[in-house]
Design a protein that fits this description.
Blueprint (H helix, E strand, L loop, with lengths): L1 E10 L2 E11 L4 E5 L6 H8 L7 E6 L2 E2 L5 H7 E4 L11 H6 L15 H13 L15 H14 L4 E5 L7 H17 L3 E5 L3 H7 L2 E6 L2 E6 L1 H4 L2 H8 L3 E5 L6 E5 L2 H6 L1
Helix pairs in contact: 4-5
């Protein structure tokens, strides 16, 4: 579905990503991990064409993504970003309805019956239909994040990009969001790329991990392949222990405090 070849990009002539090579076949949940400033958000912005590559190329469904119209890209790739401007006075259903814009004709001012059905389905799938008439400003952080995902679903994309969708949420809302993402992946055959800071959540919910470090792709593979304690210590400069989860068998990362290191 998505092939990235020798991608180099950044801001103001400062390159945050250098020679990134990734081939994503589709229908996977791919987690992007790495220390702060490693280029995780930059990668998502490059894929969604918010920033242009300095060199390299990207192909979506076999086509050069820069030769695809913006409207077609918006139909096929949906983004849930950290810095999304959410109008607090807008009703939830109206906000989710904005996801239908890429599918509407130039002079279409009202939603069709199909638009309304898609919006309602997105609300139901995310469990937000119960507060569809409330304004966004009245929602909790976890509720707002679900609504933003509902808007993305209303675009009916093939690829969903999420930039730290669990940031600032407590553990119950983190699990709720990631359970939803996994469910959408299975029921809608969505390909998903998600930036995560929490390594154990990335391990548990992702089929594949891209570990970025200093703008380079340091490691690419399954959680078992990427979350090796030697690799984590090298990249994060922190002592860790990695053990298998007693529930799922996926690798779990435990930090080793300085006091324990000195004691050992």
């Amino acid at each position: 579905m998505l092939e990235i070849k020798k991608l180099t990009c950044g801001y103001n002539q400062q390159f945050f990503l250098k020679d990134i090579d990734v081939n994503l076949p589709g229908e996977q949940i791919v987690g992007v991990i790495g220390p702060n400033g490693s280029g995780k958000t930059t990668l998502l912005r490059a894929i969604s064409r918010v920033i242009n590559p300095v060199s390299g190329s990207m192909f979506f469904e076999g086509r050069d993504i820069n030769l695809i119209s913006g409207k077609e890209v918006a139909r096929k790739i949906a983004v849930v970003s950290q810095d999304m401007d959410i109008p607090s006075e807008l009703q939830v259903e109206e906000f989710v309805g904005l996801g239908r814009i890429p599918h509407q004709s130039r002079f279409q001012f009202f939603q069709t019956k199909q638009d309304q059905e898609v919006v309602m389905q997105a609300l139901e799938e995310t469990g937000t239909v119960k507060f569809k008439d409330r304004v966004l400003g009245s929602l909790s952080g976890g509720e707002r994040q679900l609504v933003v995902i509902a808007k993305a679903l209303a675009q009916q994309p093939k690829l969903l990009l999420l930039d730290e969708p669990t940031v600032f949420l407590d553990i119950s809302h983190q699990v709720e969001i990631l359970d939803l993402i996994r469910r959408l992946h299975k029921t809608q055959k969505l390909s998903i790329i998600v930036v995560l800071h929490e390594l154990n959540l990335a391990s548990e919910y992702c089929d594949r991990l891209l570990l970025l470090n200093n703008g380079c792709l340091h490691r690419d593979g399954t959680p078992e392949h990427v979350l090796d304690y030697r690799i984590i210590e090298q990249v994060y400069k922190t002592a860790v222990v990695v053990k298998d989860s007693p529930v799922s068998g996926k690798p779990c990362v435990f930090v080793v405090p300085e006091e324990e290191m000195n004691r050992g």
